[in-house]
Design a protein that fits this description.
The chain has one domain: TATA-Binding Protein, CATH 3.30.310.120. The chain is 31% helix and 30% strand. It contains 3 helices and 7 strands, in the order E-H-H-E-E-E-E-H-E-E. A 7-stranded antiparallel sheet has the order 2-3-4-5-1-6-7, with helices on one face. The longest helix is centred in the N-terminal third of the chain and has 21 residues.
Amino acid sequence: MANAYIKLVPGSTKQEITLDDVKELFYYYKEITSKTGQQVSWEYGDAAFPYDIKENNEEGTNWFYLKSTDSRYNLIVLGVGKEEIEDEENKTEQYYIQITLPQASTHGDKGKANEFCKFLGKKLQGELHLFNGRIMYYYPRK
């Protein structure tokens, strides 16, 4: 199992995020990729997002998953949470999106998950902690 995180830092466009916000961003992603496909006369939307968004039916959970019917892809799990960050003066809450690749995930899922992480990181101007441990900064830094 591998995890990546998009952390919402003080320079991000949002300071809090919900599962519905993340789903809306995926619906937006599907919309823009299908429009790209229309412009080039190719079904790019299906290739760019070969998943169905599946709800988690358990009460009080903060995750959903992307399930694919394509043989090259299988499963990506997404969740939201918050953690306490301490500095010298005070404690603050930091929200994050967690992207998990379970054991059943394929190499195709990892490629798509990296693509989705970068999209979400740019859109939210967050701090992206990739699966390989590297960090990408999408927010304005001083």
